[in-house]
Amino acid sequence: MAKKAVASLQKGEGRAFAKVIKMVKSAKTGAYIFDEKIVRNEDVKAHLAK
Fold first, then answer.
1. Nearest Cα residue to 17 out of 37, 35, 41, 36
2. CA-based angle 30:35:14, to the nearest 5?
3. Which letter does DSSP use for residue 43 in this model?
4. Which of 4, 16, 39, 41 is the most exposed place for a label (fewest CB within 10 A)?
5. 13 φ, ψ to 5°?
6. Are 25 and 32 in contact (CB under 8 A)?
């Protein structure tokens, strides 16, 4: 199932997107969590700057 999802991202319009994984510290527990988003290639730097 996962192979189909990855394959669909590599065709046509899917190459305009990137999966961004950002490590964020939780204010409640103090532990680090990973925030995963799929954003357009042009918006990657703006998303990481937040």
1. 41
2. 175
3. G
4. 4
5. -70, -20
6. yes
- 48: CB partners within 8 A, 6+ apart: 20, 22
Q: Is 28 helix (H, G, I), strand (E, B) or coil?
A: coil
Find out whether 40 and 9 touch, Cβ atoms under 8 Å: no
Domain that holds residue 42: 2-49
Count of domains forming the chain: 1
pLDDT in tens, 12-46: 666 788 999 999 999 999 999 999 999 999 999 99
Amino acid at 14: G
Amino acid at position 21, single letter: I
Query: Is the pTM value of this prediction over 0.70?
Result: no
